[in-house]
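Please supply some protein, with fold tokens.
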Amino acid sequence: MPLAVYVLALGIFTQGTSEFMLSGLLPDIADDLHVSIPDAGLLVSAFAIGMVVGAPLLAVATLRLPRRTTLVALQAVFAACHVAGALAPGYPLLFITRIAGALAYAGFWGVAVATAVPLVPPAARSRAVALVAGGLTLATIVGVPAGTLLSQYSGWRAAFWAVAAATVVSAVATLLVVPGDRDGHRPPASVRAELRGMARPQLWLSYAVTGFAFGAVIVTFSYLAPLLTEETGLGEGWVPAVLALFGVGGMLGLVVGGRTARTSPLATLGWGLAALAVLSGLLAVAAGGATAVVLALVFCLGAAGYVTNPALQSRVFTLAPDAPTLVGAGNTAAFNVGNTLAPFLGGLVIDAGYGYASVAWVGAGLAVLGCAGVGWAARLARPAPGPAPRGRGHRPPTPSPPGRSGCAADRPWAPHPATPHPASSAPGRPHHLAARAPGSSAPPAVRRRPAAVPPPPFAPPPRRGRRRVVPRAVRHPTTVAGWPGHESSTRTASSPPPWRRSGAMATRGPPPGSCARAPG
């Protein structure tokens, strides 16, 4: 795998850390800025909405720009937003910096995936996309716990400073390692061509499956901490370790999905979503049971939730290869639609009084909808069936070779013209396979091969180019055998056949009963 792909994954890691670490910083932010925790939680929603809106808009705005330059510029904007957020004196400025940072992050996602795809051969594209997306999973495993730990000792502003510094390091690595456009990786030149490439029903169906699949796993992950503390009875000190366990399962799922998505993407999506639905239902049932069972289900839920990511990311480029930038941006927006709507649905269920374990049922329902979308996509991708065979004993007709008349006697295989005995007919069976009627001595009709038809008395004259050249007559006579029932005639090699001669021989043709026609 090229080094540039790992550098792009590093950029996703540094910015993805900021996307998820805010959930652990909300109490400190609320106390420092003198707002309520629900108001501080709006910062998470603002980031998600900025991702949804910014992915397609920035993809169009940066379509004609060099990709390496675009990646570095977006990372610089993201780092500047976090510096401004760390220095923000109040809540409004922090809210604005979160939206601006989300716009830059969304643009980086789309351009990074579109840059990684042409760097590898077609057989390794799914692995490259899985590696780039693995930066976000690594952020869940390492970045989010590290940001939370840093905020506990140095405040939430220190976490923002750390993200800004890591983003600057990633931007420098991108500038040094990612190849420029002069190396042969130029972006598409036309927005209209990319929009035309996205006009495919299969592509938008894949976006819907992406939203359902990511929403099915993120709705449980968003409320996993209160589920563990309120339903399972786990101590709050163990929650970061369980979240890291979820991330380890997600990394394992990415590795497996990156290998299987290359050969069977729809099967990977189908089995992954089915497993996600089953595991979400089991977690909803066993949330108040044994802790070991819950921990095992959390690990498996992370693996099943992220095993579909490589197929979701790489399949859209296969469906619309002529729109790589907009396709990646649209897929990023689809991920964040699921990231925004699924927790909202989970909150509605909790507010209705069904408890924290009920969010797992919401995840199971979304996974079932994703399975239905995958089945529909498989049906659309199935080739049209050919004509079905007519039954036992059917053979397709053999075309007549050149020079033959095309009648039944000229075919190498044909049924006997005799009509089968009426009593030998049986419903659903060919006549030649039907049994004889009781007491009947007539044999059943069979298929017979006709007698061979003799070839024409002379070969057609050769062709030279487009002119028909008749060879010169041979001076000595040549004896040519006539048709059956006709005497042998003595003529030269260039003399016409008997049925073409003038005079009395002009009306003579092939013998009666023959299917041969006069050539020419």
The chain has two domains: 1-187, 194-380.
